[in-house]
Every structure is written in structure tokens, then in C-alpha cells.
User: Fold these one by one.
Assistant:
Number 1:
Amino acid sequence: MKGKITTHFSWEEMIRSRTAEANGIENRPGTSEMVALERLVVELLQPLRDTYGKPIRISSGYRCAELNRLVGGVASSQHTKGEAADCVTRDAGELLRVLKDSGLLFDQAIWYTKRNFLHLSLRKAGNRKQFIVYNT
Ligand SMILES: [Zn+2]
């Protein structure tokens, strides 16, 4: 999968996984997962990036079930639906504050304080706007 989704986000970074490559897993999203990934980027990640004004790196986006198991994700993980991405910035707490102030719609924002990344998700309907902090 090649090409940009928006100015700052590409299909490659939303799908590519070193763990998948190292383990011979294809990690190929289906149509509905691609629709969800595009929605996540267009409606949440890019507008957030625009407001934040600094780079956001995606450490994990789409995960097929096999990859998700391998990285220890919960079976119901939104990563397997293309609805979630782990966002790495210099200060994930700052990105969370920007999200809070932005009024952007999201489902869950999970801040992993020690690992310094923000898990963000968005689904088609029923978004919970839920903030969670894990001190891991
Ligand atoms: Zn995540």
C-alpha cells in the first residue's frame, strides 16, 4: 500500500509493521479496515496534527489478528479494525492536551505515560470521547 492519505500521513505508516515483517505476517487490511483507517486519519489524526503543529509518528496502526496477538494486543483491539493508531511525539501528554482543547471527535485516547505515546481511536458511530491514563 503506497501513497499519502493526507498531507502528513501515508498508507504505509498506518499499515507497515516491523514486527509483521520480521515474522512473515502480511498484515493486509480489507476494505472496511481501509475505510476505517482513512476516516481515522482524515477526521482525527490530520486535523489534530494541524492544530498540534509538530510531527506525529505512528508506531502502530492497522494490525491483522495474527499481528495483534503477537504484540500482545487485546483480542477486541480497535487496531484490528483500522480504528486506532499509536501516536508518538516528543511529549504525548502535550498532544493529549491539544486533543482535549480541539473539540475533535474521538472514541478513546489512552495515554501511556512511561512509554510516552497516545493511542487514539475513532469509529464510525458511537464515539465515547473517553480519556484513559496508564502509567506504563
Ligand atoms: Zn494502541
Number 2:
Amino acid sequence: MNIPAFGVGTFRLQGQAVIDSVRNALDLGYRAIDTAQIYENEAEVGQAIAESGVPREALFVTTKIWVPNYARDKLIPSLKDSLAKLRSDYADLTLIHWPAPGNGVSIEEFMSALAEAKTQGLTRQIGISNFPIAETRAAIAAVGREQIATNQIELSPYLQNRKLAAFLQEQGIPVTSYMTLAYGKVLKDPVIGQIAQRHDATTAQVALAWALQLGYAVIPSSTKRENLASNLLAQDLRLTDEDMAQIAALERNGREVSPEGLAAQWD
Ligand SMILES: NC(=O)c1ccc[n+]([C@@H]2O[C@H](COP(=O)([O-])OP(=O)(O)OC[C@H]3O[C@@H](n4cnc5c(N)ncnc54)[C@H](OP(=O)(O)O)[C@@H]3O)[C@@H](O)[C@H]2O)c1
């Protein structure tokens, strides 16, 4: 099984904003939605899906288990709570949100519990998020690499994560790039601006097309229907080798997200 190349993110979106964003996205043709227990918007995502009229089997819904729910006796009940909020019998993909070293639950324990959730039919696929190489190796050791559908990581033109991405590729684990737009920062980049001009495209489309062309899945979020619509068209944009090389040169270790206690040692 594969994961969709293009989805919509919902981080930071609450209440009516997330309902509107997911409703617009589904209306525009998005079929993959990324949420998480900690986003506290699963119920609104579920409402928007129910009201959209799009059949559940046409959708790909991802959620992520939050840190206090990693223990063997908590993970599956917490996923069942998420599913009730999402108004679904299953998730398409369930991720461990952060490695959270030192929270008292081993990678072996939470990955086995997650694999058990899959066996029980609560999630079609399982995966990890924000896992550096060492923690990914431990997750592979726990459940086998073929079980890990993706590692969802921060990856943008300013944080290209080449070492981790190369390792994941070697292992055959697909990369999902989150914050591909660096929460809007890369949209003001002059080099990306020039590439966009050459293609008569937006800077967001260029950044998204760059990630897609490297083989990564993307999940950009937006509160605006016109941005959701134009982002989706990044799938039709073909960047040249020269464009790709110019963007490769923008790397600056521009990490936006690294919460203490949740992140492990980055590669
Ligand atoms: N696994 C994790 O730990 C993790 C962490 C962070 C995020 N994520 C996931 O990844 C998703 C994407 O990340 P993100 O939402 O933080 O950041 P992002 O997609 O990099 O950027 C979103 C920002 O860019 C703006 N934007 C989007 N399209 C635009 C366009 N065409 N033109 C101009 N501005 C545009 C949005 O503003 P407007 O609303 O004004 O369009 C918003 O401020 C999240 O929603 C979440 O689902 C996962």
C-alpha cells in the first residue's frame, strides 16, 4: 500500500476554521487529510468529512498518537477515541507523533501497540513522525520496515534533511514532508520567486513541486480556499534540473520545530 502524494494539513486550525478548511479542500478535490490527537480538531475534521458527502472509502485520513497515550494499555483506547471523533471505524494511517525519549515508554512498546492496532483493523497503515535515523532503526527493529508506511518529518527548501531522507530511501520508507513552506517563510525567498516567475507559478507551488519531484508526500495547510486550490496545482508543475539545483542550494538547516522532551537528537 502507498500513501497519497498530496494531502491537506490541519495543524493550528481549530473550530470553524478547520471545518471550513477541510470542507474547501474536499470540495476542491483533496482526498487526504492530516490531523493528530494533539491538534484537538479531530471532531471538527470528522464533522467536515461527514458533511462533505465524500464517501469514507474515497478518503485517506491520517492521525497521530500523542505522547501520554504511548503506553501499551493506552494507545489502542486513545486511537478508538480518535476514531469516534473522526466518525470512522478506521484510520488510513496512524503515526507516533514524536519519539519523546525519556517518557518511560520504549520504542519497542509503542510500535508493538501500534502494530496491534493495525491487526485489530483500527488503522490500515502505521508509521512514525519526527524520527531521526537511530529511532527509525529502533522502530524497524520493533515491527519490521515493511510495516512503516512513512516517516513524516519537517522538510522544506530551508531544511532539506538530506541525511535522514537518504537513509529512509535506502530503507524503502516513504518520506512525508511537513511544513514544506516553512510555515510561509520560503514563500518570500527571492530564488524561489524567480523560479516561480519563469514558470508562471506561485512560490508555494514551486516549493511543493520541488518536494514532490524528490519523491516526498506533502500536506500543506491553508485557511484560504484560493491557496488550497493553487497549492493542489503544484502537482502539474515540472521543475527543470536547473530549478532543482537552485533550490538544493537554499539549504540552511532552517528547522522550525524541535520541542524539548519530544525531539530526539537530530541527524
Ligand atoms: N508531524 C508533525 O510533528 C507536524 C508538525 C507540523 C506540521 N505538521 C503537519 O503538516 C501540515 C503543514 O504544516 P503547517 O501547516 O505548519 O505549515 P505549512 O504548510 O508549511 O504552511 C502553512 C502556512 O502557509 C500559508 N500558506 C499556505 N499556502 C499558501 C499559499 N499558496 N500562499 C501563501 N501562503 C500560503 C498558510 O497561510 P494561509 O492560511 O493564510 O494560507 C499557513 O500560514 C500541518 O498542517 C500538519 O498537518 C505535522
